[in-house]
Design brief:
The protein is α+β, with helices and mostly antiparallel strands. It has nine helices and twelve strands. It is elongated.
């Protein structure tokens, strides 16, 4: 135990007992910085205080003197617990920094640009419930077509983010936006099946819009069905198509279906963060989601997706329980 520390504390204690003013207290506060720098534990400090008090104050009652024995024992346990707590806080802070870094890397890696296609209005919004996003949206385009992929990893955190990088790798291997959706899913399924564990699966919906024929071709790998809104009929149609989740089997067959889009029609693509929203009363029915979308059917596609997000967040008391991803493709002319 440093003798210089004992000497300084003895002088501070003597000054305080004699004068008892704020300057003495400030000296004590300043002295505490030295204790941290010299790594002096709480129980060691009590020993220093006890030795200094015995020299400064004459005839200390035995009961007071013995009380320090109890205080030292208390401080030994307290010091250990405090050290463990501080280590835990530091680990949590390091983990938070790493997660923030990983989230920024993910945003950069998976970033996609909503393409501009004359006669087509596209809106997209993807909001993660946590630091890492388990949803993924990817666009391909050329003057004749636009390809749209929307995926959802069954899982959260860093493993889901790593899995998303494989989906992006698969999407980057797609040669053209004109590629048949069933072929695209077959390619990505092979990549995912070779790369992920048996406990991780991915649902995905891939679609291609032909700007010449105004047809929307789609295929699904166990994903949430898209919704087709017919302006003429003023109603929604569920675009359901069977398909096995990505990563389950190396060999599986996906089927493509086609729907014609008339002027004013739009298709809604989403993840289960939209269809499985929960309020205090229970799950929000898909009919409610349809109603919210229909309320703003005359707005731009981007205004529509942002309005839906705000309304569903409001119904959930501003608590996003799952990743939210919504894409609306609207035929303008």
């Amino acid at each position: 135990m440093p003798q210089e520390v004992e000497r300084q504390y003895k002088a501070i204690l003597r000054n305080y007992l004699e004068q008892q003013n704020e300057l003495n207290l400030y000296e004590g506060q300043t002295f505490s910085k030295q204790l941290i720098q010299k790594n002096i534990s709480p129980e060691e400090m009590i020993g220093i205080h006890r030795a200094a008090l015995e020299e400064v104050v004459a005839d200390i009652p035995d009961t007071i003197d013995h009380s320090f024995d109890l205080l030292i024992e208390v401080m030994v346990r307290y010091g250990l617990a405090l050290h463990e707590h501080q280590n835990l806080i530091q680990k949590q802070e390091n983990f938070r920094i790493e997660m923030d870094l990983a989230a920024n890397v993910q945003k950069t890696l998976l970033k996609t640009t909503v393409p501009y296609i004359e006669g087509l209005d596209i809106g997209m919004l993807s909001v993660p419930a946590r630091e890492m996003n388990g949803d993924y949206v990817h666009f391909l385009s050329n003057p004749q077509a636009i390809g749209i992929g929307i995926a959802d990893v069954i899982g959260k955190g860093i493993p889901a983010a790593l899995c998303m990088s494989m989906i992006k790798n698969g999407m980057d291997s797609v040669n053209s936006a004109n590629e048949d959706p069933s072929v695209v899913l077959d390619v990505i399924n092979r990549i995912v099946e070779r790369s992920v564990t048996d406990s991780m699966f991915v649902s995905m919906l891939y679609a291609s819009y032909d700007t010449t024929s105004n047809t929307f071709t789609y295929a699904s790998a166990g994903h949430e069905p898209a919704l087709h809104y017919s302006l003429k009929e003023e109603t929604f149609h569920e675009l359901f198509v069977r398909g096995l989740l990505l990563g389950v089997l190396p060999q599986t067959t996906y089927q493509s279906h086609i729907v014609q889009l008339e002027i004013g029609d739009f298709v809604v693509m989403m993840t289960d963060g939209v269809t499985e929203c929960r309020s205090q009363e229970g799950f929000i029915e898909i009919e409610k989601v349809m109603q919210i979308i229909e309320d703003v059917k005359n707005e731009s596609a981007q205004e529509m997706v942002e309005y839906v997000y705000k309304e569903l967040i409001l119904l959930q008391d501003f608590e996003l329980r799952d990743d939210f991803t919504l894409v609306i493709v609207k035929r303008a002319v």
